[in-house]
Amino acid sequence: MTTAPTSTSKVAADASGGSLRFYGVWLLGIAALIVLPMIFSSGGSLTSFSLIGIAIVFALSYNILLGQTGLLSFGHAVHYGLGGFAACHMMNAVVSHGWPIPLPFIPLFGGLGGLVFAVIIGWVMTKRAGTVFAMISLGIGELVASSSLILRSVFGGESGITTDRTALPKMLGWSFGPQLQVYYLIAFWLVLSAIAMYALTRTPLGRISNAVRDNPERVQFIGYDPHVVRYLAFCFAGFFAGVAGGLAAINFEIANSAYLGAIQSGLVLFSTFIGGTAYFFGPILGAILVTYLQLGLTNLTGVWQLYFGIIFIGIVMFSPGGIAGLLMMHRPLIRAGTLWTVIPSYLVAIVPTVALACGVILTIETVARFSGGDPINLFGIAFNPTSPVTWIAAAVLVVGGFFVARLTWRRIADAWDRAATVARDRGYLA
Amino acid sequence: MLEVRDLHAYYGKSHILQGVDLDVAAGEVVSLLGRNGVGRSTTVKAIMGEVAPQGTIRFKGKDIAGLPSYKIARLGLGYVPEHRDIFPSLTVRQNLLLGIKDTRRPGKWRLQDMLDMFPNLAARADTAAGVLSGGEKQMLTTCRTLMGDPDLIMIDEPTEGLAPLIVQQVGDLIARIAEAGVAILLVEQKLSIAMRISKRVYIMGHGRVVFEGTPDDLKANAAVRQEWLEV
Amino acid sequence: EDTIKIGYIDPLSGGGASVGEGGLKTFQYLADEINAKGGILGHKVEILPLDNKTNPQESLVQAQKAIDAGAHYITQGNGSSVAAALEDFVTKNNTRNPGKEVLYFNYAAVDPSLTNEKCSFWHFRWDASSDIKMEALTNYMKDVPSIKKVYLINQDYSFGQSVRSDARKMLGAKRPDVQIVGDELHPLLKVTDFSPYIAKIKASGADSVVTGNWGQDFALLLKAAADAGLKVNWYTYYAGGAGGPTAIKQTGLDHQVFQITEGFPNSGNQTAMDFEKAFRAKVNLSLWYPRAVNEMRMFKAAAEKANSIDPVKVAAALEDMKFDVLDGGQGFMRKDDHQFFQPIYVSSFGKLAANEPFDEEGTGWGWHLVSRVDTPQAMVSTTCKMVRP
Amino acid sequence: MSAAIEVRAVEKRFGNVSIIRDLNLTVAKGERHAIIGPNGAGKSTTFNLISGHIKPTSGEVRLNGDVISGLRPFEINRRGLSRSFQVTNVFARMTVWENVRCAVLWATGHRYAFWKNVDSLPEVRERTAQILDDIHLTHRRDVPAGLLTYAEQRELEIGITIASGATVVMLDEPTAGMSHAETDRAVSLIRRLTEGKTLVIVEHDMSVVFGLADRISVLVYGHIIASGTPEEIRRDPKVKEAYLGEEAH
Amino acid sequence: MLELVVISTLNGVLFGMLLFLLSSGLTVIFSMMGVLNFAHASFYMLGAFFGFQLTKWIGFWPALVLAPLLVGAIGMAVERYGLRNTHKHGHVAELLLTFGLAFAIEEIVSMIWGKSPLDYRVPALLDFPAFTIFSTNYPAYKIFMLAVSVVIFVALLVVLKRTRVGLIVQAALTHPHMVGHLGHNVGRVFMAVFGVGSALAGLAGVIAGPALVTQSDMAASLGPILFVVIVFGGLGSLPGAFIASLVIGLVQTFAVALDGSLASAFGPLDPSAGPSVLTDIWNVTIAQVAPIVPYLLLVIILIVRPMGLMGTRES
Ligand SMILES: Nc1ncnc2c1ncn2[C@@H]1O[C@H](COP(=O)(O)OP(=O)(O)OP(=O)(O)O)[C@@H](O)[C@H]1O
Ligand SMILES: Nc1ncnc2c1ncn2[C@@H]1O[C@H](COP(=O)(O)OP(=O)(O)OP(=O)(O)O)[C@@H](O)[C@H]1O
Ligand SMILES: CC(C)C[C@H](N)C(=O)O
Ligand SMILES: [Mg+2]
Ligand SMILES: [Mg+2]
């Protein structure tokens, strides 16, 4: 499942095995979604999986804009949030009117919520791309988020509106009270939306979106109106963001103005970019990582925001193609059979790099806990933040780790160059 | 003035320049000829530091290999690249002014001289350079580099995409520059101009210089022309 | 033996962080105090800090995390919007997961609806709800003849709105002659410059301002007032919060800023003052939340009374429980709505008298008793229809 | 029968400069028409005016008899006019195959379809493959266009232009920057691909112009000073003076 | 009424100038380098905290000079070791880098100075009312802020006109190599521009710190409005940013001053209708919507005139 530009000559040979592998990847993904909760069944992991599922749908929808069409939006959460509100209102309406609509259909209404807004606002917004679009989306995002606090009857003010997912008509005997059932509902919609969004990339519209991203001017001369293309992409992105919002509403049973706000918009931009916009599965990885960090880091350290920042800076600087880009870099090497020449240099690099990371962590935690005096627990070793021993350890790790690590990074680069040359010679790399 | 010895350069792992030697004396006009893709542009880029050079490059006796390009330029080496890197959002005038390295020391060439020389540019002085016609862009880049008052100017394919008449004009311009005492390293495909104005020519093939001599030598040597210039 | 984990769900980052940190330190201090005396029924108490970024939805994620970590109790205070979401969450959680109930101890979210139409058996509130406070505040104000023109300025969310509507209603009833010359709602924690609002207050000719503003919304409001030289009396809920005292001192409003609370440092009650002293020595903060002390101590008492740390039994024991509060006097947890009733104080901020040892934020000024309302007078009715398990 | 392109009294001003003045040009159906002229004469601007990239200040342009001035580029393209650019203008991050296929999609009627799989549209696939074959880039089909060599990009540029099957094709300096051999190849390519179509071409390379064109128009300062067969143009003294110089072949 | 108008005008101008002080550095960076610097407000915060700390150690006036220099140095380091490497990967990458930076800076600041507001006071020298109008005081410090803003505006205008830095940076955005070939040290120019922009943010922090709250969340609360100012004013236009600051300051102040709502203009709606979007809209006062007015202005201007008020280019 990739839209990657691949090798030159070996493509035809792969084609027959390709479709098998293609369906294999999808089936594997679905199977994983089904068995995951059986392996990790604690309440905590179920909640995490559910949130990750929602984040994936949201990030994929964002990539329709950023990765596929080249539109940088600072207000994508508007559709997510409106989807959430639409779903909440719909659930409440279903309950109060006694409509026979079971819960699994609700995300569709979330999607419609996101879509309707996109349809209304999108035409003027997508007139232009680039900074103008980005800034309009910032403005619209703030406008909608602030208005949601004023239009209390629809958005419920600061506290938002709540709903009860179990009050809807049952389906297949499921009440959707237990988190497990909600997880499967989310997983179901995740698969559905992912397939739909993947399919979208394979349609004429999807391809033309790519063309608009690369060169909107030229698109006009092959018969397309880039404005229409951007608008349609915007609507699709809005719809799937709304689906994600609807899923969130089901999961939390609440929708409030924070759904719509800049923080959500920023997070989805983060997830998508960090995962990698050039590949379909990039945003999936990004959503998993970011959600996981968000949930996990706060447990480990009080200064999680600092790590969050550092990790992002690191990824942006050292892997601008995102995680997916980093992974896909290796594909030609695997095909050319030269990956094994790089692995040893990776292994060598791990030790000093980890040492460096530990040193940084130790330094940060030492500073952070200096006044509190709580011990730092790093891989089972306790450090006292007020003791000079800790400081020296941190300094040695950082400085020593850095210098040794730098040498090993060079080694990686060299090994890479060699492997890539071979891959190029064998026609697996352009 | 410019002395290049055993110059090597790579794009990634491909070895493009495999030991280029060439010299340009002060005030001299020298052409660097050769087929497409033999590495002529790469040679000048390596001299300017845009491509990492290996080997010796001396300019006015100073080793400039590996210096950042702004330092090389400040030594008095001008470079007009082949893709007409004009600054599209700036006006023609602003483009020209950016050629001046130090506003406190006026050079030989004034803004007005340039505009006089090319009425086309004068008429467009205050329009954004991005809308210039292909030919106008070429004139602009050359003039811009001249504004920096170089002692040696390296021009990469100045006549590409120019109308025949303008090609002649550019030829005249180059001759004028040479008259003003500026040395020129001309990278060209069109033999006619090169032959007309240069004192010496180099021909490149396979990443190294394969022929060196005067235009007359070259005229006399049909075999070289046949093998290295496909004419 | 198991530790009792209490999920502390409040902002530890973003705009509310300063308030949330203060609360966290308070609860950790109280947990240490209980642990030092052997814990609750032999169980140690542990506070799990969980950052909700003042966001209702994030609070639910954090509540779930608390539950997953084995907490049967959560506590929260900063923001009624969060409280409403949490109350709803625990109620649903407890009906869906019988045997795994969670109690929610609310120490500062004072929107009355939390113990009225939204009330829940699983929610207990130790802070006086905003209408109780307004009742007490207006009882004091009605006897101040110099109050003629009142300006209301509040944050635009459920709590601010209830302050505003209660003030209108109660002032109207108790002092019909007082004129409300302005009634302002501004966005929560978003305004950076209050000068335009001060200009309006000034133009209205008000002599008193009533505000429920907290956090930076209070500090900035007073700062702008100070700059413009606005001299009025301030009747507030949270002037004592972070930044407030500094701003008042800068304004030079000596004993012109009033605050309504369930306790304050210079209350004169010896045990409370001893506690304050020890607390300041250890935490380097003044005690903003005397109610947190009541909450934790009463929790211990209830568990001991029920002889169990099972939330359902503790909840039952808490209902109608009487308790001697930190600042003196007796309070009780009303069974009908799980609202705690206790004596309430109006205090003013200014130069300290000889018997008032505590100043605030190093300003040299501190809180001074103005009036005290005893428990029976600080009661309001409820519309709660409690659903019991 | 109406002409393929008719430009009538078109004027184009930028600010207060008239770049195109009283331009009249008629290109008959099936004709190969070259426009030559000094740099800055307005050749590319003429292309822009005809293809809808910019709008004339006054005057009108007709395509197959219908007025098209004022229409947007994609509307004009849908009526069967297609153009290339002087500066290479391809979809850099997409592969060669995708580049050409995108250009095929509208003409094959798939438009903005989001319910069809592009990979399973046989006529699109065949046509794309055909064009790649024509422009000799089949072996490079999976390379991102941005990584092609300059000459290959120029060829791709031509491929994209003809992919829609337009009946009127306009090429702006298609061989600029190519070597002799490459130029020769490009010329025969253009000749083959525009068989039976109307072609308008701008070139500075006189061998290309005289080798390809049925008729030539000479544009100087935004005005056509001469129009005729290659022979007539070659002999025209005005043209010699304004454009060809001594170097005329 | 006259009183309210006069005072609101004054307040609006003062607030507008504060906005300009804050956004001038961002304009310089954004318009010249095209970098959407989300960490700008964080530099502003750093300025405030450095200002606070240095004031404690060496007094306000030295701090006023030193703190911006420090922030400028940090900015230069960020450009040199971060942005410069990211530049080739496009604006989104640059933006995310500054995004991450904003996160990190906020946490570092609260690690060092805590999360509570600091007691950062107006220097004694300026702690008096400059003048009184309609019995409202105007503190000398605010007048000082206004003066600084105007000085910065004029200074920037002159510097940008006089030097070719602007041209060099703009040219380098499209063809950095070419600019180097012309003899300009592009790296240093970029670093300097970013440094100056950051230093301006730092200066704004030192000055605005005592006037507003100095707290670890002060960056987050001011970020977006700064983008509104510079985009509304028009990218690349310093006068535009200046005017936009004034317009937004005035509009917002006057919006607060106005009590009107549809209900007060046309009478209340039929109460039997119950709450709905309509009643929400009907009853909301102009004062309540004041904070969203800038965003409304932004969206409208971008739709009508994508280059902003005085801008010359779109992006
Ligand atoms: N950026 C690049 N990456 C990889 N290879 C390159 C790059 N630029 C040029 N080359 C290759 O280097 C070789 C020499 O290129 P160069 O541009 O120096 O040729 P040239 O002699 O100037 O020819 P031209 O007539 O095309 O300008 C060519 O084979 C070209 O394909
Ligand atoms: N948008 C514009 N604004 C102002 N002037 C313009 C604009 N577009 C083109 N021009 C001017 O119009 C003239 C004609 O330009 P055009 O690109 O059409 O020339 P051309 O004939 O194609 O030349 P070349 O052979 O060099 O490509 C040029 O002088 C150019 O500067
Ligand atoms: C911490 C408090 C200031 C919160 C406020 N009382 C509320 O109910 O929202
Ligand atoms: Mg070349
Ligand atoms: Mg042209």
Tags for this entry?
heteropentamer, A: 430 residues, mainly alpha, ABC transporter involved in vitamin B12 uptake, BtuC, 2 domains, two-stranded antiparallel ribbon, two-stranded antiparallel sheet, 4 strands, disordered N terminus, D: 249 residues, alpha/beta, Rossmann fold, six-stranded mixed β-sheet, four-stranded antiparallel β-sheet, 9 helices, 24% strand, globular, binds adenosine-5'-triphosphate, binds leucine, binds magnesium ion
- The count of DSSP E runs of length 2 or more, i.e. the number of strands of chain B, is 10
Most strands sheet of chain C: 7 strands, mixed
Q: Determine the most extensive contact between two protein chains.
A: A-E, 43 and 47 residues
N- to C-terminal distance of chain C: 28 Å
Helix content of chain C: 25-40%
- Percentage of residues in strands of chain C: 15-25%
DSSP summary: helix tally of chain B? 10
| CATH H-level superfamily of chain B | P-loop containing nucleotide triphosphate hydrolases
CATH topology name of chain B: Rossmann fold
CATH class of chain B: Alpha Beta
Mean pLDDT over the residues of chain B: 85
Count of beta strands of chain C: 15
Tell me the quaternary state: heteropentamer
Strand order of the largest sheet of chain B: 6-7-8-3-9-10
Proportion of residues in extended strands of chain B: 25-35%
- The portion of residues assigned to helices of chain B is 25-40%
Low-confidence stretches of chain C: none
The order of strands across the largest sheet of chain C is: 7-6-8-9-10-14-15
